[in-house]
Amino acid sequence: MDEILRAEGYQEGTVGERMQQLNVEPRFLYSNDAEGKEQLLNDVRAQVEGMYAELPNWFRKLPKHRVEVRMVPEFSEGSAPMGYYNNPAPDGSRPGYYFINLRDTALHPSWTLPTLSYHEAVPGHHLDGATAMELDVPVVVKALWSNTSGEGWALYAERLAAEMGMYAEDPYGDLGRLQAELHRAVRLVTDTGIHAKKWSREQAIEYMVDIEGLDQATAVSEIERYVVWPAQALGYKLGQLRILALREEAIQALGDAFDIRDFNQQVLNVASAPLPFIESTIRNWIAAAREQRQEDGGAAT
């Protein structure tokens, strides 16, 4: 983050202080009126469509259910998160919904939006949720969801977006991605600080603002969530790290035969299942792929 900030002319202060400057720069803000909100939604829709165009290069099969970008209804803006996702109807009567909270557009500087979209929509929660709707499994399996696995997949999707090159010509969007990555690391500190180290609410808020440059209102909302929901915020990073570790196992085991499309599809097909099931599924797939590779090599010989 420091390297990007310096390259863009932001030299003075900590990373957190410089990120707070970006939070209020007019060029990154949408007007807080109907026109500004519509422009924000249209920009997000363009980001989602741009990602859809790239997905076939990274997955074997995409779900038929699409995702629709919507504004959080006004009656729930005060208590709703900045963005969230709702699964499509299994019968196809309703698409997946990616909701953005526009109670104040200043909460969404433009550089924060790509990563939010990749997390909540594609290749994040929507690919996970819509794929689950189309699997030939009992309904109860489709309805169950593991926080660690589901949020871990969404964080993996953020990393995948960078590997796809979605930020190659967007240094500020990449700053948003890196701030989101830092945010998940800060969560590990603040959640355990509150529940294991007896931090006060105010101490946790101050730490979050200072370290990552999050605006005060969002930091308050985040910390108050951790206060009443111990360890939920830890699941994100734990799940992502395990998926990345499994990918490294596959790369080491399969070598030149490793195909990112196959790995991503294998994880996606079980992405909401508990982590131990994801691990066993991927390791069985690795073993089968390695055996097939050996058979093919023997036949060629």
List keywords for this structure.
single chain, 301 residues, mainly alpha, 2 domains, 3-stranded mixed sheet, 13 helices, 62% helix
Alpha-carbon distance between the two ends: 51 Å
By DSSP, the count of extended strands is 3
How many helices in DSSP terms?
Answer: 13
Strand content: under 5%
Rounded mean pLDDT score: 94
Would you give an account of this structure?
- 62% of the residues lie in helices and 5% in strands.
- The model has no long low-confidence stretch (mean pLDDT 94).
- It has 13 helices and three strands; from the N terminus they run αααβββαααααααααα.
- The chain has a three-stranded mixed β-sheet.
- It is globular, with a radius of gyration of 20 Å.
- It has two domains: 2-176, no CATH class; 238-300, no CATH class.
- The longest helix has 26 residues, at 171-196.
- With 301 residues, the chain is mostly helical.
- The chain has helices spanning 2-7, 15-24, 34-54, 113-120, 125-134, 139-143, 147-164, 171-196, 201-212, 216-228, 232-254, 260-268, 275-300; strands spanning 67-71, 83-86, 96-100.
- Helix 8 (171-196) packs antiparallel against helix 9 and helix 8 (171-196) crosses helix 11.
